[in-house]
Design brief:
Blueprint (H helix, E strand, L loop, with lengths): L20 H6 L1 H12 L2 E6 L2 E6 L2 H10 L9 H10 L8 H11 L5 H27 L6 H18 L6 H20 L12 H29 L7 H7 L11 H32 L1 H15 L18
Antiparallel strand pairs: 1-2
Helix pairs in contact: 4-8, 6-7, 7-11, 8-9, 9-11
């Protein structure tokens, strides 16, 4: 006998009024990991009046993001809060506007462009490791999350914007420590003050965003001057400055350039930094996996600096 189709996904019951809001505020990582383990590939949660779904299986994620992407959009509460940072950009927009932005961004991510990023990545990683070696002689501790944020920000800055980040990395990291918790905290509230209302947290958020905008507009200004001097296009921002919509023959406005730059600069580096930080943490909890990983790296590289071609030589699949 066929089992009836379950129309409502399972999930943690929660409070009759608040739903899972208290668990979300207290320990969001615990909420999602425990819910996935208990309820499976699709989990239904309720944050006050908002219904959200946690998708865990890669096939379902592919269905949403690739195969049936047209059935879903970014008109969500979380996207609205992200938009307060990035504006209308590739990360937050939908439909024709999203297609236009993606078409303009795409040339910067062709294979030959990605291959050229590898040297920058290894060079900057080598510099970081050299600094770690100096720290280790003094037996000092390293903040891995901060180190990964600096590294990925520098890589994104140089590969996509040909920008030597320097002290600006500290400015952006400091600002992100305000911006991200602020955006996330608004998700955990039933009612928020309007972002323009001068509460202490709103004012702090706007100051931090202004600091990031100062960095971003500085990058855009440098690229404009480079193009005025006849320098060739060599990164994403240079291509965006020259890009024209084929239907209207219009380019991107300063605000649109700012939105795309801030999206790649912040969202691009922060997510990767978090992933790398978690990798270090998980390896520290599983020394047997760390030993196998190091053995694999030693076998493939044999002491050499890694290149993009070395990725295809990896055979270790457990990590």
């Amino acid at each position: 006998m066929n089992q009836p189709i379950q129309k409502v996904a399972p999930g943690p019951p929660g409070h009759f009024l608040l739903g899972n809001l208290r668990e979300f505020r207290r320990d969001v990582l615990g909420l999602v990991t425990q819910s996935a383990a208990r309820y499976g590939d699709i989990v239904r949660c309720r944050l006050g009046p908002q219904i959200v779904h946690l998708i865990n299986h890669p096939d379902h994620i592919e269905q949403i993001l690739q195969k049936r992407a047209a059935n879903y959009n970014k008109n969500t509460r979380s996207s609205d809060y992200i938009k307060s940072v990035t504006g209308d950009s590739l990360l937050t927009c939908n439909g024709d506007f999203w297609k236009r932005q993606r078409r303009m961004d795409q040339p910067a991510f062709h294979h030959h462009q990605i291959a050229g990023f590898a040297d920058t990545m290894t060079t900057l990683t080598g510099r970081m490791l050299d600094s770690w070696a100096l720290v280790s002689t003094g037996r000092k501790e390293l903040n891995i999350a901060s180190e990964m944020a600096h590294l990925t920000y520098s890589i994104v800055g140089q590969t996509l914007f040909s920008f030597n980040t320097g002290k600006d990395a500290e400015t952006v990291e400091k600002a992100m420590r305000v911006i991200l918790p602020y955006v996330f905290s608004r998700l955990g509230q039933l009612i928020n003050w309007p972002i323009w209302f001068p509460t202490p947290s709103n004012r702090k958020f706007h100051r931090s965003l202004a600091a990031v905008d100062h960095v971003v507009y500085g990058i855009i200004d440098q690229h404009r001057k480079a193009q005025e001097n006849g320098e060739p296009d060599k990164d994403l921002l240079a291509m965006l400055l020259r890009a024209r919509d084929p239907d209207t023959d219009t380019g991107l406005s300063d605000s649109q350039l700012r939105n795309e730059t801030i999206t790649f600069l912040l969202a691009g580096h922060e997510t990767t930094a978090n992933a790398l930080t978690w990798i270090f943490y998980l390896l520290s909890q599983h020394p047997e996996v760390e030993r196998e990983l190091l053995a694999e790296i030693s076998r493939v590289l044999d002491g050499k600096i890694p290149t993009l071609a070395d990725i295809s030589k990896l055979s270790y699949t457990k990590w």
